[in-house]
Amino acid sequence: MFSAAARDAAVARHMHLFPSRLIGPLRFLNPVALAKASAVDLKHRRTAPPTAHPAPRPWTVER
């Protein structure tokens, strides 16, 4: 939910309602809201560029 709220305004509004105590936990975690958040995260995962992993550092510890 948190990562989806950072990427989508509708999920962010829904996220805002819960800590503001305008909706309860059952409405916050309803299947429609969770599906929307999952869809936003999956869409981001598909469009995100692959992360480049840095080259491993050689260990040059001498004793």
Automatic annotation (TrEMBL):
Region feature Disordered, mapped onto this chain: 41-63
Superkingdom of this protein's organism: Bacteria
Protein name per its UniProtKB record: Uncharacterized protein
Organism, as annotated: Streptomyces subrutilus
